[in-house]
């Protein structure tokens, strides 16, 4: 029987993208839960082998404006405590840190700038999930907030060039990544040059057309670099 994965989405422009395609190709059945459309957040996993929480433009503790964030953090904490496979991408990573006692805040070094080298710590080489990714892989980062303090039990697995947490392990089968392994050039355009709500003041100093061109030009490499991560996560879901 194919493992079923609950995929929590926060906005239309942040779908599972490539990651969902790769998981499906590996035999995983994806159940998409669009929280931004009013879908109720379960208190725990019942019929699913694991949880994937995607990104979004909101902050991890913007509870006053985004009513579903608190139940999402509660679900993440429950899944991590139960030892079920979990992956948080960008906002999902930040939500996990906040749910487990860490701290998330705007990056003092500025907004994430597109293509970024993946720089694993020595621990990543033995990690059940991140060991699937080669050091120096190109990652897409597009974020204003970062995890500035990991929860006590978390282990950093990669560091961004500015010194902030790029990936972490939050439990035996629980991970968060600040980058976007799911992001195709089309998805990235939706966050940048095609986003009418983009705050350009926040992106001062970033050449958006050039950044989009870089991501587009490295599409094949991005696919090669990150499909192994999805396939390894599929293996963990299968037990």
Describe this structure in words.
The strands form three sheets. A seven-stranded mixed sheet has the order 2-1-3-4-11-10-9, sandwiched between helices. Strands 5-8 form a two-stranded antiparallel sheet. Strands 6-7 form a two-stranded antiparallel sheet. It is globular and about 45 Å long. It is built from six helices and eleven strands. It has one domain (4-238): 3-Layer(aba) Sandwich (Rossmann fold), CATH 3.40.50.880. The chain starts with a strand and ends with a helix. Strand 10 and strand 11 form a beta hairpin. It is an alpha/beta fold.
Q: Roughly what fraction of the amino acids lie in strands?
A: 15-25%
Compute the average pLDDT: 96
CATH class category label: Alpha Beta
- Helicity level: 25-40%
CATH architecture name = 3-Layer(aba) Sandwich
Helix-strand topology string: EHEEHEHEEEEEEEHHH
CATH structural fold name = Rossmann fold
Largest beta-sheet characterization: 7 strands, mixed
The span between the termini is 12 Å
Largest sheet strand order: 2-1-3-4-11-10-9
Q: Spans of 5+ residues with little confidence (pLDDT < 50)? A: none
- Say which CATH homologous superfamily is assigned: Class I glutamine amidotransferase (GATase) domain
Would you tell me the structural class of the helices and strands? alpha/beta
